[in-house]
């Protein structure tokens, strides 16, 4: 699928006399474009739009603001994203942008559904996901069977 999104090829154009501010804006646009193109490569996603808020660098670490991101997705047909897929997109964006915690990434679909709402809440509160619960159950059963053989 051809895309008119621009990524880091924005820097391929020879421009002389670019100011620091212009370079920062170009970098932000390029990063947004690269992330959107990557997300559009997923089977369920028809279009993606990424907006980044990159705070100014500060020499004072305690005053340093965290970056933020918002992503709008148009899904193909009746496609839906699983919680794990939404987490994967959040992780991709968080890992790609300096000083961007996962909690600062919001994802909505074209039907205005907030897909990222409370997505990490269970992990933060120490509640186990169903996958982790199943893994623990399997481990327990394995150990229990081994103990029965010993006895």
Structural description of this entry:
This protein is of the alpha+beta class and 151 residues long. It contains four helices and three strands; from the N terminus they run αββαβαα. A three-stranded mixed beta sheet has the order 1-2-3. The longest helix has 21 residues, at 20-40. The protein is elongated, with a radius of gyration of 21 Å. The model has no long low-confidence stretch (mean pLDDT 82).
Which class of secondary structure composition applies to the elements?
A: alpha+beta
Q: Give the rounded overall mean pLDDT.
A: 82
| Uncertain stretches of 5 or more adjacent residues | none
Bin the strand percentage: 5-15%
Query: What is the CA-atom radius of gyration, in angstroms?
Result: 21 Å
Tell me the span between the first and last alpha carbons.
62 Å
List the topology elements:
Layout (H helix, E strand, L loop, with lengths): L19 H21 L4 E9 L14 E8 L7 H14 L8 E5 L11 H4 L5 H21 L1
Parallel strand pairs: 2-3
Antiparallel strand pairs: 1-2
Distinctive features:
151 residues; 4 helices; elongated; 15% strand; alpha+beta; 3 strands
Give a short synopsis of this structure:
The chain has 151 residues and is of the alpha+beta class. It has helices at residues 20-40, 83-96, 121-124, 130-150; strands spanning 45-53, 68-75, 105-109. The protein has a three-stranded mixed sheet with strand order 1-2-3.
């Amino acid at each position: 699928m051809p895309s008119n999104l621009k990524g880091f090829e924005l820097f391929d154009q020879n421009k002389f006399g670019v100011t620091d501010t212009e370079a920062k804006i170009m970098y932000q646009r390029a990063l947004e474009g690269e992330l959107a193109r990557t997300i559009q490569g997923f089977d369920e996603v028809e279009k993606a739009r990424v907006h980044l808020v990159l705070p100014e660098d500060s020499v004072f670490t305690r005053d340093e603001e965290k970056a933020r991101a918002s992503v709008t997705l148009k899904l193909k047909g009746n496609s839906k994203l699983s919680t794990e897929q939404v987490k994967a997109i959040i992780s991709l964006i968080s890992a790609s942008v300096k000083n961007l915690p996962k909690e600062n990434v919001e994802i909505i679909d074209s039907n205005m559904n907030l897909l990222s709402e409370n997505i990490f809440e269970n992990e933060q509160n120490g509640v186990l996901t169903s996958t982790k619960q199943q893994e623990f159950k399997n481990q327990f059963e394995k150990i229990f069977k081994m103990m029965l053989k010993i006895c």
